[in-house]
Amino acid sequence: MNHLILNRDFRLPDDGWYHIAPFGEFPHAGAGVIQVIDQEACVAMAARFAADANTPNFPGLLVDFDHSSLDGEKRSEAAGWILGLENRENGLWAQIRWSDLGEEAVKGGRYRFLSPVWARSDCVDLGNGRLRPVRILNAAVTNDPNLKGMVPLSNRAEGESVDSSTFNRRANNSERNGPSDAKAMEGKGANMKAVIEKLVNHLGLAADATEAVILEKMGGLISATVVTELQNSLSALQTKHDGLVANLKAVEGELVNRHLADFEGVISEAAKPFWMEQLIQNRVGALAVLGDLREMAGKAEVTSSKDGVKETTRKPLHNRATARPVPPGQGGGAGAEGDSKAVKIRNRAHEIVKVEKIPFVVAFRRAEAEIAGIQQ
User: Fold this and answer.
1) Is 323 a domain residue?
2) Per the domain annotation, does 324 fall within a domain?
3) pTM above 0.85, yes or no
């Protein structure tokens, strides 16, 4: 399943996009499987590439010469790098940036085909020997019409690269080695299944979600780089917020101190903490109350003049009913009768105070009650 790089004039497309995998089912004789390239496969491969591309320092996917990177004994030189993947109406397209060697080779017509590569572990088993790739491993420029590079290992970084013939040899060796290899493979499969189940739960997918659906969902996840940038932005905003709050508190404190100074004659030193709290919690209400207190204090002031010097005294406000003796001729009764009654009450009150040592006000009330009772 190879696709033309150049047209007959050996001209590269201006936009740098190449049709790397058309839709269809393509037999792979060497591996004994049929590769199913459909919409689901292309969507999954494009989504997985997008997720990988979001990782820091992502170089792109390698495009080599004749799949030489799959053979450890050959030199692996880059013909180019895949920088983008798209699912289009006729299959999978790749944006390729050519190296100097690759551009020279394809422009000169030495290579005319592209051949994609995927690991068998990156394929969904559809049964009956049919595999759907959900992740592209790399690609190659080639003139060989046979598809190469069916790699059965999921992690080529461990040093093993195999082609389809190696895949068949490993399968035969596994049969000859007996149950021990089979048990090891079963153990790895169980571990992988547990990992996939956790991943499915974390992504909020159904338990029977296909690998293609999982990879597509992963393609929409926020990358670690974006998360770091968001965290840095949040930290900067928090610092700015803290600075604004500190400035606001400083201004608020200065304003409260001004109000305390404005009402210095109304607020005592001991009451300052209380009024500071009130001014912070409800400045308008506190100022209204302080204004009323200052107005009341002003009305209570009495200005008098003594020897030509003005003196200001505060008239006390008593919250009690006081009965005071009325001097003769200033009320309390009608004429001489009222004056006589007042004198009797006053004299009796003095007698009670002298004997019982009680306040005059209390004694006056008792005297008043006694005189009234006698007269009745």
Assistant:
1) no
2) no
3) no
